[in-house]
Design a protein that fits this description.
By secondary structure, this protein is mainly α. It has one domain: MetI-like fold (Orthogonal Bundle), CATH 1.10.3720.10. It contains 12 helices and no strands. Helix 3 crosses helix 11 and helix 4 packs across helix 5. It is found in: Cell membrane.
Amino acid sequence: MRVFAPRRAGRRPAVSRKELTRLIFPALALVAWQAASSAGWIDPRVLEAPLDVAAALVDLTRSGVLLDSLLASLQRAVIGFVIGGGIGLLLGLIAGLSRAGERTYDALLQMLRMVPFLALIPLFVIWFGVDEKPKILLIAVACIFPVYLNTFSGVRNVDAKLVEAAQVFGMSRTAIAMRIVLPLAMPSILVGVRYAMGTALLALVAAEQVNATSGIGYLALNPRAALRTDIILGVVLVYSLLGLTIDALLRAAERLALPWHRTLNTERSR
């Protein structure tokens, strides 16, 4: 018989000990990097010190360039993700719920997802020009497949006995899909959403190398940043922090939307 310790009263600390432990190695790496740079072991033309990178980001923030570039990049990423994620979700639901849908386009999508989205850049430039369309479409294409695969897998892994029981009780196919299949597949769908957002940032980096006049990628390539490793490293840091922030927000949204799933995982880990 499993005995559970009583929960202590009071609020849970905002930052747990495990979360603090994960920050130890990055902090030590930054300290070692700064120490090596201060000692002259690292050529600043090759790798600027962390404090110099932070100073460059502060200057860009004060001038408003960083905020404008960040907003432009976020706009491209969000629009591309909404388009690609929506298409992937719809196709995944249809293929998961219908054998006919799977036979119609699953093989095609499995072939297309093996094509690197970077290889599509020249074609998109020829087809759509060099304005915002190829950038957004590149991000959209990159987001389709993670959402599609996880949606398809989540729908197909729903217990068939639950669907059969719902049919016995006279529920329609639409009601079964919306009230049973979709909620049970939601954890897998949200995993696909998280992967798609990460992929969107990767595609954003590539998209903003193509004749961009705004955005984080343009900020690293414009003449102001030429041969300045502090600005380039600052842009890389912004990309990484942006990815971590988006992932944390999606995790929080998952905990709010699926509290039962979090409780189940907690019980299993005990």
